[in-house]
Amino acid sequence: MVTANDVLRIARKELGYVEEYQNLTKYGRWYGMDGVPWCAMFVSYSFYQAGMPLQITTDKGFAYCPYGVDWF
C-alpha cells in the first residue's frame, strides 16, 4: 500500500529541479503536455512514481490544479 511518505519521498528527490525554458520540464514531457504550467503534473508525477496514479482526468493524473483540488 502506498503511503503519503512514499509520495513525499518521490517529491523530495525532485528538490532543486528547474524548468529548462518557459515551462519545459520532464514532468510535462512525461505527462504529454510540455510547455504549459506544470505544478499539477508534478503532483501527478509524484503519485504515479510512488505507485498510486491519480486517475482524475487521464491514466497519469491531472494537469489542471482545480481538478486536483476538487478530487482531493
Largest sheet, in brief, is:
none
Helical stretch tally: 4
Bin the helical content.
40-55%
Number of strands: 0
Provide the low-confidence segments as ranges.
none
Rg from C-alpha positions?
A: 12 Å
Q: What would you call the structural class?
A: mainly alpha
Gap between N and C termini: 18 Å
Shape: globular
Q: What's the overall average pLDDT, rounded?
A: 97
- Strand content bin: under 5%
Order of helices and strands: HHHH
Describe the protein's architecture and organization.
The chain has 4 helices and no strands. It is an all-alpha fold and 72 residues long. Helix 1 (4-13) packs across helix 3 (39-50). The longest helix has 12 residues, at 39-50. 24% of the residues are buried.
Q: Topology, pairings included?
A:
Layout: H1 4-13, H2 26-31, H3 39-50, H4 65-71
Helix pairs in contact: 1-3
Name the features.
4 helices; mainly alpha; 72 residues
Give the gist of this structure.
Helix content is 49%, strand content 0%. With 72 residues, it is mainly α. Helix 1 packs across helix 3.
